[in-house]
Amino acid sequence: NSLPVSILAISSYEDNARTLSLFQAGVNDYVRKPVIDQELLARVDNLVLNHRLLKELEEQQQHLERIAMTDQLTGLYNRHYLMDVAQKKIASIKRHSVKLSLIVIDIDFFKKINDAHGHTMGDLILTQVGGLFKELTRDEDVVARIGGEEFVILLDACSLKHAFTKAEEIRKALEEANFENLNVTASFGVAQYGEDDKDFGALFMRADKATYLAKDNGRNTVATD
């Protein structure tokens, strides 16, 4: 999103109506002929300064927007952004009959990692695990950390079958990875949005329930609702 170009007009018009027409046409400032060099330079300097201030303001706004949607530890999306984009995707699939699936992931025995190696190590593990999830998913998928050791992946245009396959792929990659010489596994719950789901919350509850089923099945496994 580039800022508009600042325009300085040089005009011989002296009546107010013509001056107004310049501003209505998009001119930011103007100088009447004959041009006084010092005045021209001063007005150019002001336009440059205003343009710089607008650019800084835009960058600050973008920074605040990134903070609002990002998990500060892992750099993934956060719960707030997930809820917002999920509702939009659900509205879209209802119009276009596209499938939407969700994977809920809970790191196995993460409390033991924190207790044995400290929270700094735990945070490092979460960051690296989140990076792995992001690496193994598509750009159009939404990978988010929603709290503690719980992550979700919202899979656009993806059936339950393909979501299960993707979850199993990620599970194996996680199991085989080396995170600071620690073995890390997770329990995965998978669900596909269905006609009986009133909203994203209903889909999440089914996927989350499947995660508990994966834990009951011995952890380090994938389950569906």
From TrEMBL:
Question: Which segments constitute the Response regulatory domain?
Answer: 1-48
What's any GO biological process attached to this entry?
phosphorelay signal transduction system
Which SMART domains would you find in this protein's record? GGDEF
Name the InterPro entries for this protein.
CheY-like_superfamily, Diguanylate_Cyclase, GGDEF_dom, Nucleotide_cyclase, Rev_trsase/Diguanyl_cyclase, Sig_transdc_resp-reg_receiver
Provide the reaction this enzyme catalyses: 2 GTP = 3',3'-c-di-GMP + 2 diphosphate
NCBIfam families with a match to the protein in the record: GGDEF
Q: What is this protein called?
A: diguanylate cyclase
